[in-house]
TrEMBL record:
Species: Lysinibacillus piscis
A Pfam short name: OxoGdeHyase_C
EC id: 1.2.4.2
PANTHER family: 2-OXOADIPATE DEHYDROGENASE COMPLEX COMPONENT E1 (PTHR23152:SF4), 2-OXOGLUTARATE DEHYDROGENASE (PTHR23152)
Reaction(s) catalysed by this chain's protein: N(6)-[(R)-lipoyl]-L-lysyl-[protein] + 2-oxoglutarate + H(+) = N(6)-[(R)-S(8)-succinyldihydrolipoyl]-L-lysyl-[protein] + CO2
The protein, known as: oxoglutarate dehydrogenase (succinyl-transferring)
Cofactor(s), names only, from the UniProt record: thiamine diphosphate
Amino acid sequence: MSNNVTPVSSPWSAFAGPNLGYVMEQYDLFLQSPEEVEPELALLFQQFGAPVVVEGEVAVAASPAAAPTGDLQKTLAAIHLADAIRRHGHLAADIYPLNNRARNTKQIEESAFHLSAQDLAAIPATVFFKDVPANVKNGKDAIDYLKAVYTDKVAFEYRHVVVPEERDWIQSKIESGFFKQAQAPESKKAILDRLSHVESFEKFIHKTFVGQKRFSGEGLDTQIILLDEILNTAEANRVEKVRIGMAHRGRLNVLTHILHKPYDMMFSDFAHVANHLFMPEDGRLEITKGWTGDVKYHMGANYTRESGMKVKLSYNPSHLEVANPVVLGATRATQDDTTQSGPVQHDSSKGLGILLHGDAAFPGQGIVTEVMNFAKTEGFTTGGTIHIIANNMIGFTTELYDSRSTVYSSDPAKGYEIPVVHVNADSPEAVVQVGQFAAEYRQKFGKDIVIDLIGYRRHGHNETDDPTVTNPETYKLVAQHETVRALYGAQLVTEGLVTAEEVAAVDVAAYAEMQAAYDHVKEMQAQDDHQQPEMPEELKIEFPQVKTAVAMERLTKINDELLVFEENFEPQKKLGKILEKRRDAFTSAKIDWGHAETLAYATIIQDGTPIRFTGQDAQRGTFSQRHLVLHDKNNSKEFTPLHHISDANASFVVYNSPLTEAGVVGFEYGYSLEKSNALVVWEAQFGDFANMAQVMFDNFISGARAKWGQKSGLVMLLPHGYEGQGPEHSSSRMERFLQMSAENNWFVVNCSNAGNYYHLLRRQAALLGTEGVRPLVVVSPKYLLRHPLAAASAEQLATGSFQEVIEQPGLGTNVEAVERIVLGTGKVMIDLADHVKNGEGFDHLHIIRVEQLYPFPKAQVAAIIAKYPNVQEVVWVQEEPKNQGSWNYALETLYELAEGKKLRYVGRPTMSSTSEGDADSHKAAQAALIEAAVAEPVKVK
């Protein structure tokens, strides 16, 4: 509490005679059955204990027949009024700069509670406060004080917060006068100077680069003041890294004034002069670049403050809120210590995430609630995110009544018990206090908090847009409204802190600073050699050669250790038998998919690479194939065998994720960017579930390296395969990933062998932290997880490497007889292998499994085809419909490989759905395509 709070007399002094007796009786009831007591009285009992008279004598209980009358009813009504002010005062608050929304006072008027000023004056102030503010002498003063703090430039919604300690802390902050603390004179001058630079920056661009889009933040200029204060408070709390996410509006001002991208460097982007000519030499600003680039209001930066705290603004596409999980994933990575074996050591105090949202987007886009749902989940918590709604009261051209069904755009947050603070963006000093408060709350309680910064948008959606066409009334008000810099300057003049001439001088000096920076750009223009960035040489290598073999002795020891449980741990009986079979499988060449995967992870953490694995039901595996986390059948205690591997030099964690794809994929992508040495793996429950994360693949994962120079080694496992389970559980939509494949942006792999998958994971881990790293899309199996023809031997794991192409054993030995070569990928190739058995009767046939689809192993396939001089046909076989799967992607390359030979497609016809929905129909179609694939070529007469 602040030092302006003093205790006064007991609230029980308001009661006498029968009323006091009734209160005593209610107190006795409260001790026995508190739920039967009126909430207001219960609150008084909780705060002040047993009723006593002012002199300290214990009151004598009245007879049970005494009825509550007079003062008691007025007191209870007054308590209801105070509660209404705390609960609904925000509806009457002065939080709209344009004053274009009515302030609703009906719920907090004395008359609504049948109270008069005289009634209130007769009630002690202690009825309303545990610690009474100075100058509050009675109930009338108390109600006036509450109205003053709850209906001013800052408004509060916190009564939905469940934990009493949090509510009490927030309430004490509000009612102690924290939000009305005056800034020191020098602080006020600094705010004015900051606002002058923020405004001058926007005005200079508007005047100098006419017609160029910048998505101005004018109308919410104090957003910079708010971020300043949050960062200053975080710095004081020894936060090491801050990660910020925001869409395009106001982004250039944040880059310039929060990330300290110099004015000349920013203006060079508008003037089409190479901005590296203006990069500061102190090394504190870091900017990555791709070779295709992006518009300036999508770019990010990383800045190291004098204290050493690193602040990063995430790169972002135009899709507004989709950066949210990316930023939170990066934030989580700043908090995780992955250097030790066993589970990750998580310390949320090390990193802070700040998300800036649009007011229409916050309730409109589901990704927002997805990330709020992360807040208390073990694998995705970041110890509290500060959400800022950059509320300009409009969405493109859409007024709020068309964009949401709630009173405030912030309302979805209340379902997650997140406190909301609304603040008038034209009140800089209030904004400062809100920034301090939010950062303190987050650090103290480790929870999310929302700041609804309410302003307006001075221009249209962009600077070429005319908003008066669609929003004439709003923009009449905007045209008449002074900027916050002008308003605050006038306020300081009124206060006698500065003169009008001094305010003008500050503005002129700020604008002159912009002009000098632009003059520098023009001077440097002659030195611009206009070089186009190129793809790194290491990324041009389509097939990185990486040693992935592991000594047999090491593998044998790992396999044994994975089957040792801690003392008194008893797995479920059936599972125990399944795991025990892995001991024999290791020596009998029957290492299945989950077994090979676990061995790969064990070797990777021994090599010093941490692993983070998430997905819906990832611990067990959707198909009960993985069992990375075991549960004691007697008490559900968890045991993770990979935490007990000897010589492990990094952490391993696997988390079952919330039931969302977009949010989790974005989170894992962000984590992989921040912790580039970690193998980050996400698994879809079924491959087609990735549909819900398509925006992440389209806007981040596929193109971020080319656009922004951001390196990720994220692994995405997408279960895929046609087994008669219907359309939605068959296809991972691999065609979409293949369509986006270019410039070696990722690997797309469809393995048919557990050993090859083992080496694939080890190859991916070895590429982490190198220029050649790229994401990995794995079209992973379901049916093959336990198929004997997909199993591996220990020898394959110990001595092999990843094979982009695998020739079918038993076929192609009679070189002259081979007339048809069948190519395909994934599970259908095992169906073919099962059909041809040892190859007897199939001399005319050879089968090539394309394990890596992108980059396509063209040279390797061509070399195999060249061995067979009498080939008449090259066939591509797939389970997927002709307009889906890999056929259209591979077609151009297959034409080249066929070199005039007949090229045929074998598979399902074009279909609008991904597969049949009936198991019998599936079996018939599958059998037909297998027969067609292995048939002898038709002889041409």
